Each structure stands twice: as C-alpha cells, then as structure tokens.
Amino acid sequence: EAGVTQFPSHSVIEKGQTVTLRCDPISGHDNLYWYRRVMGKEIKFLLHFVKESKQDESGMPNNRFLAERTGGTYSTLKVQPAELEDSGVYFCASSQGGDGTQYFGPGTRLTVL
Amino acid sequence: EDQVTQSPEALRLQEGESSSLNCSYTVSGLRGLFWYRQDPGKGPEFLFTLYSAGEEKEKERLKATLTKKESFLHITAPKPEDSATYLCAVQRYGGATNKLIFGTGTLLAVQP
Prior knowledge:
The structure holds 2 protein chains of 2 kinds. Chain A has strands spanning 5-7, 10-13, 19-24, 31-37, 44-50, 53-56, 65-68, 75-79, 88-95, 103-104, 108-112. By secondary structure, chain A is an all-beta fold. In chain A, a hairpin with a 6-residue loop joins strand 7 and strand 8 (75-79). Chain A is globular, with a radius of gyration of 13 Å. Chain B is built from no helices and 11 strands. In chain B, a hairpin with a 2-residue loop joins strand 6 (56-59) and strand 7. The radius of gyration of chain B is 14 Å and the shape is globular. Chain B starts with a strand and ends with a strand. At the A-B interface, strand 4, strand 5, strand 9 and strand 10 of A face strand 4, strand 5, strand 9 and strand 10 of B.
C-alpha cells in the first residue's frame, strides 16, 4: 500500500513569489492534515480536511495560506505571497477515521529567500 | 493550554545501554498519546498509540508506557539503527478536529 506522498520535496523561492505544495493521502483516507515545522520549533497543526470539507483551519497562520482538497482526494497548500517566516518543512498526514492513526508524508522543505 | 514537553532534548547512548525518554503532557481530556520516530529528511513514522493510564505497548526494543501526566519510551539494548528523533504527540477529546499537539522531540544517537 502506497503511503502519503508530497511534492515537491524541496522548494526554494524568493520573497513575494507563490508556491503550491501538493499532498496525496493514502487511498481511502478521508481525513487529511497539514502540519508545519519551522526551524527549532515543534511540528504544528495547520488544518484538517474531512473529504473535501475543511473541518478545522485554526492553525493557518494568515490569509496568505490557502488549502484546497477538490474531490476529496489530493490536497494543495498555496502560499501567496511567500514571506521569509514561511520557511520550514510542511508535512501532510492522513487517517482513515477522524480519531485514527495519522500517517505522515516525507514533507516539503520550503525555503523563502 | 495543551502542552507537550519532551526530555532530554538529546541523548547519546552506547550500543546496548538501555535508557528512557520522557514525554510530559498537559491536555484537557486525553484521547490518545502517540509516539513517532523521525529519521533525517523523512516524515514522522508511527510507533505507538496509548489511550489510558497504565497501558503499555512494545515493539522490538521499544516499550511505551503511560500515566496520567507523562509517557515514557523505554529503549532496551539499543542498536545504532535506533538512532533517530523520537516525537511525542497528544490528541484531545472535544472540538471539531483531531489534530496532534507535538513536543519538540528527543534526538537519540546510539554509538557502536
């Protein structure tokens, strides 16, 4: 069974540019989560989808971040415009049930210069 | 406020030298406590879930235990391949989400 996949693995962009991260969850997992780890800090929750609906987006830093999950399959996280403090590793996770074990992808390392 | 604190931040062991990692938590209604392992450049890999005080789970050289305030990850006779960052996270009851609240992790290095 394929695990959670994320694309790209690395992205380096200039401040003010736009970047879109993609996450493909484990097949059949309705729950999809985005997390972020900035250097030296713990992994922090960003938002939670159940199928195509946003269940909780309380962790989204500001309105420069836009997450979508059209059709309830893969998800994208767009940062527009990117700022220096957006640098970090963005993880995606998925689970079968709402309280099920969350399985993580390898992450996307974003560097904003 | 929900909080997870892990100690020590880093631990260096000789191969075969057993030890324990600590995860202290404060959460309003614990649904579950999770242990993950993370290797450099990879995502967290699930190890265990503990749901109630007194529960224990084992996998190879690892054993996780839970009390009402903390969890321990015991590593028995570690090998170099056990070197990784070990992450603890909690999930609480209530609310609309099942987000995980993470600690900052313990970086374990096992020397041959």
